[in-house]
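Dear U.,

For the methods section draft, I wanted the exact inputs and outputs in one place so we can describe them consistently. I've listed the two proteins in the order they'll appear in the manuscript figures. Please don't edit the token lines directly; just add comments below if something needs changing.

First protein:
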Amino acid sequence: MTENLAHRVNAVHRYGAPIPPEVRVAATALLADMLAAAEKHGVSLADFDDAIDLPGGCLDVAVAAERRRRG
């Protein structure tokens, strides 16, 4: 499943500059953790796909966190 999630995160292209691989790894981990929590509520990635771009949102958050860490 993680490989599929990594594929989903890697398919997101929102930024002009390349996104470092470690940021994509962090976004994939965040996505996996969020989906594990959602599963407890009977919600899957397909359910999110019907409403929002969760893989893209996780990448946005990981990029923002990396920028904040760098200052």
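Second protein (the one for the lower panel):
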Amino acid sequence: MLSFVMNSADLHSAPMPGHDAVADDAPAPIEQARTERRRQAAVTEAAALRRARAERAGATVLSAPRVPAGAR
């Protein structure tokens, strides 16, 4: 009968089951989500400013169709 015994060094270096390894320099998923939300907010704000400026200038403003996030 084979038995496998791990010492404490093996336990600390062994990955947790079900967890994917992430590079140390890669942003955490929460940071990726925040960055994406900030980018989307900046795009929305820029579009609103363009519409407001066009309205002030007396131009007819047509709203652009929404592009699904995966289509970019």
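Candidate sentences for the figure legend, describing the second protein: The longest helix spans residues 29-56. Helices lie at 8-13, 29-56.

Thanks,
Y.
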